[in-house]
Amino acid sequence: MAILEGIQDGTIDAIACDHAPHESYVKKCEFAVAANGIVGLQTSLPLSLSLLAGGKVVPARLVALLSAGPARILGLRGKGTLAAGADADVTVIDPEAEWNSDRETCSRVEEQPLPRVEDARRAAATICGGRVRHTTIAGVTVDA
């Protein structure tokens, strides 16, 4: 609840992830020495989108938290905005696409920090620097 309150009142101004999926051998050990990180977009996007349910966060605020906020913190000019002259970095979200966070679709390791997420929404395409890098639009997966 404190995190949600911080998002709503502006104390938290960014949502970011450590997109770092690791092989099982660096995760199956004592917690204190295990490699940090989980798959990023696959988990952070559905969890962030869940904030929209019930009007806890408005879409524009969520977009800012996931884009402009991290870019500002890291001092990345031309990132986190769709303003003229900015890099064309976009994530297209398909609100009808269903996805779940089981091991086969989410991660190379069995250990997950969160319970299985059913029927989460997912990214349909990612565009970086104006180039399509990944898409599942029309049921076809393409990685470039």
Task: Specify Rg, calculated over alpha carbons.
Answer: 16 Å
Mean of pLDDT: 77
SSE succession? HHHHEHEEE
Poorly predicted tracts of residues: none
What is the overall number of helices? Answer: 5
Assign a percent range to the helix content.
25-40%
Percent range for β-strand residues: 15-25%
The largest pleated sheet is described as: 4 strands, antiparallel
- According to DSSP, the number of beta strands is 4
Shape: globular
Largest beta sheet: strand ordering = 1-2-3-4
Structural class: alpha+beta
- Gap between N and C termini: 39 Å
Structural features, described:
With 144 residues, the protein is an alpha+beta fold. The chain is 25% helix and 18% strand. The chain has a four-stranded antiparallel sheet, with helices on one face. Strand 2 and strand 3 form a beta hairpin. The longest helix has 9 residues. The chain is globular and about 45 Å long. The protein starts with a helix and ends with a strand. The mean pLDDT is 77.
In short:
With 144 residues, this protein is an alpha+beta fold.
Secondary structure: elements and pairs:
Blueprint: H1 2-9, H2 41-49, H3 59-66, H4 68-74, E1 90-99, H5 103-106, E2 120-128, E3 131-135, E4 142-143
Antiparallel strand pairs: 1-2, 2-3, 3-4
